Amino acid sequence: MDGAPHLRPLTILGVTGSIGRQTLEVAATLRIPVAGIAAGRGSDELLGIAHALGGAAVVVANPTPAEAVHFSEALGPRVGFGQEALLAMAAAPGTIVVNGIVGSAGLEPTVAALDAGNRVALANKESLVAGGPVVVAAATRGRGEIIPVDSEHSALWQCLVGETAASVRRLVLTASGGPFRGRTQSDLENVTVAQALAHPTWTMGPRITIDSATLMNKAFEVIEAHYLYAVPYERIDVVVHPQSVVHSLVEFVDGTLKAELGDPDMRVPIQYAITYPDRSTGHLPPFDLGGRTLVFEPPDRALFPCLDLGYRAGRDGGSSPAVLNAADEIAVAAFLNERIPFRAIPDVVAGTLDRIPPVGVSTVAEVIAADREARWIAADLVDAIAPGARN
Ligand SMILES: NC(=O)c1ccc[n+]([C@@H]2O[C@H](COP(=O)([O-])OP(=O)(O)OC[C@H]3O[C@@H](n4cnc5c(N)ncnc54)[C@H](OP(=O)(O)O)[C@@H]3O)[C@@H](O)[C@H]2O)c1
């Protein structure tokens, strides 16, 4: 089908990021109006996008005082500041909210959008990882929809269209394996930030790129899949597939496997989350099947312990996935700032999980409390490895 079947305007949260910028491209291709945009800082890039979009409302979530003055002068009443303005934007009725915010700051806008009955095209991993039960409850309460943007969950979603829950034997998430696939423990001793940021198949923001190198990203995706599809952890598997052409698979009880394939390009699942249940013409050329070799292999769980830390936190449930996420956020920031080595990232996460027993979470406030406690403990663990100024 050509053109955009759903013309609900878009709200793009995290518009200056990798997902946000690609969403702007999709909006331009589909000719969908953009009603609102938000980012963390009052950057020149955000101002440039605001000018280019004309009338869209703008939110700067964490401006410096100087940025707030500058943006007010430049944009007048169409700019708002802070968390309240961000949540009001997410809750604007009748919109599709693309959540491309990085980190646990994405949770509250997801809940606000779902409570308002909006569709959330969800890229922000931390919403479901940290706040799975809270997000699922908000979707039920507000009758909002969550359509996944992440390529793996979009693949699962597409494989599950028209199927029943009882017919699913297992979900299989594919992982590229990241830049260190096939390496040894000693190879990982002196990994540099630049090496860890060099993802073989996807171009993404820094945190998710490091999480891909540790396989923590896949651990998060296992937890997200559990909440999105209500499938228990023992029926969610991970397979390494370095070509990133098969984006994930579903195995059914009769032995049939369905997979979704395509060249790795986030604009495709972003567009699908916006147009679902319809499809619109995309920008990719026809897929060339000639000469392709697709490889599948088990993940190296000893070399990449973050994967099993994710299963552990998921099975523990309650606050544990929020602790996992927050500890990882601190550990990744410390690695990016060259304070701890790459191999210490799982140590910081495991140490934080060991110190915080799981408790039930049913509100955003409870998730935030678990997140805060985990950040403190993870930061202490980082300090123990690398004494000196905190991140
Ligand atoms: N990139 C991908 O291909 C991909 C694929 C699947 C899933 N995801 C997930 O999508 C999310 C975004 O990833 P990304 O790679 O696009 O990240 P990114 O490039 O680092 O961009 C993050 C965006 O979030 C904004 N932001 C940060 N804190 C904010 C706050 N408190 N309020 C509002 N906006 C805030 C940033 O604004 P400033 O620029 O002002 O800081 C920026 O626009 C992550 O959860 C990631 O795991 C990404």
Give a topology summary.
Blueprint: E1 10-13, H1 18-30, E2 34-39, H2 44-53, E3 57-60, H3 65-75, E4 79-81, H4 82-90, E5 96-99, H5 107-115, E6 119-122, H6 125-142, E7 145-148, H7 151-160, E8 168-175, H8 193-197, H9 206-214, H10 216-229, E9 236-240, E10 246-252, E11 257-261, H11 267-275, H12 306-316, H13 320-336, H14 345-355, H15 364-385
Parallel strand pairs: 1-2, 1-5, 2-3, 3-4, 5-6, 6-7, 8-9
Antiparallel strand pairs: 8-10, 10-11
Helix pairs in contact: 4-5, 5-6, 6-10, 6-13, 9-13, 10-12, 12-13, 13-14, 13-15, 14-15
Bound molecules: NADP nicotinamide-adenine-dinucleotide phosphate (NAP).
| Helix-and-strand structural type | alpha/beta
Tell how many strands the DSSP assignment holds: 11
Whole-number average pLDDT? 95
- Flag low-confidence runs: none
| Sheet with the most strands, sense and barrel status | 7 strands, parallel
How many helices does DSSP assign? 15
Q: What overall form do the CA principal axes indicate? A: globular
Strand order of the largest sheet: 4-3-2-1-5-6-7
Topology order in helix (H) and strand (E) letters: EHEHEHEHEHEHEHEHHHEEEHHHHH
The fraction of residues assigned to DSSP E strands is 5-15%
| Relative helix content | 40-55%
> Which ligands are bound?
NADP nicotinamide-adenine-dinucleotide phosphate
Radius of gyration: 20 Å
Terminus-to-terminus distance: 49 Å
